[in-house]
Amino acid sequence: VMYLRGPASAKVNSTVTITASGLAAGVEQVKFDADGNVGWDLVSVSGGSASFRLKLDFAGTTTITAQGQDK
Asked: From CA 19, how far away is CA 56, in angstroms rounded?
């Protein structure tokens, strides 16, 4: 089971870090996608987790999804 951890709230123009952990064996990368951002980010797994940094450019709710991938 993958877990996502990040702040419950943040101010506009701040940068937040979202971490995926509890990754299954064999997962080498995590694809993070944030509503409102163009495209997605593919992050390599290190020590069983992967972190994604996002600058919040607008007010409101941002939904972040993550998908584990092998290479």
From this structure: 16
